[in-house]
UniProtKB/TrEMBL annotation:
Pfam families: tRNA-synt_1b. GO terms for molecular function: tryptophan-tRNA ligase activity. InterPro entries: aa-tRNA-synth_I_CS, aa-tRNA-synth_Ic, Rossmann-like_a/b/a_fold, Trp-tRNA-ligase, Trp-tRNA-ligase_bac-type, Trp-tRNA_synthetase. HAMAP family: Trp_tRNA_synth_B (MF_00140_B). Homodimer. The keyword Signal does not apply. Its main location: cytoplasm. ATP binds at residues 9-11, 17-18, 149-151, 188, 197-201. A motif ('KMSKS' region) lies at residues 197-201. A motif ('HIGH' region) lies at residues 10-18. The gene is trpS. It is found in: Cytoplasm. This is Tryptophan--tRNA ligase. Belongs to the class-I aminoacyl-tRNA synthetase family. It comes from Streptomyces ortus.
Amino acid sequence: MKRVFSGIKPTGHLTLGNYLGAMRRWSEVDQHEADALFCVVDLHALTVDHDPGRVRRLSRQAATLLLATGLDPRLCTVFVQSHVDEHARLSYLLECVATDGEMRRMIQYKEKAAAERARGGSVRLSLLTYPVLMAADILAYGTDEVPVGDDQTQHVELTRDLAVRFNQRYGRTFVVPRTTHPEVAARVMNLQDPTSKMGKSDDVGPGVVYLLDEPETVRKKIMRAVTDSGSDVVHDREARPGVSNLLEILAACEGGDPEELAGAYETYGSLKKETAEAVVELLKPVQRRHQELCADPSYVEGVLREGAERAREMARPRVDAAYRAIGLLPAG
Ligand code: AQP
């Protein structure tokens, strides 16, 4: 059975982009078809200016939402990254095969470092090395497939490069993973700025639909989405990014093809209305289950505890093998 690994970073409230780009597939497909692990990658949330209490709250919320979307601990492993030391252990070894040039070429690093500097802050070294830790997350488990949104493609490419390089230098230790993306909505765009990705740590709140937004809030955000000049509904990401984004969201919610859907709408207004209702319906069961789980925090804690134990057992042999392969003396 193939092994699947993916993660979610508790840097903000989870968004429709996170759900359509990644999480939905985890619960609907991956947990049924693979030996799958899903992780709240909390160490990654420390790479930018953070508030400790907020990271803890968001980590708990992200874990609860993962279960609320339908992840079933009988079918897959759900855990928190910092509960499994093997990630950090392996990350250091991979830093010893990665180069600083590779790190500085990462688009997300360039964007986030620029934003940090623009705010007058300093850039943490961990922001530069974050893709190596992500590679460790993936490689520790012998992962075959990494289901992610489009923005993570470059990081998975780096992971592949590091796995190949390590294997060539020190002997075959890691599986070389591949990426999978959803067919539509692999990159959901910000509703107020459809040329930028909908991000959970964006400042532009009205452009971001959060999984826990009230139905009225979802409707308002979608009805106020920036559309393009012109009035006919066509799917063209370059010329009509606003309308195309709505068509992709609608297609992802209801199934179907954004280009075909475009023909069914004569005005932006009717498209927005239909999209808003589709998103409200999509989020309803997730929000209901989230509420139930919040009333039972010990269940969530138990899932995370057991998940971490299982994950540790899966990761340790491969990370130990990497330690031996790279030339470290085994502890007696
Ligand atoms: N807008 C998006 N469209 C499609 N997929 C998306 N993902 C994130 N945003 C979109 C996918 O969600 C998974 C978890 O993302 P992450 O927690 O690793 O964070 P990220 O990729 O850095 O994106 P965010 O949510 O915007 O966080 P911030 O604002 O902190 O950078 C990934 O598979 C991602 O591709």
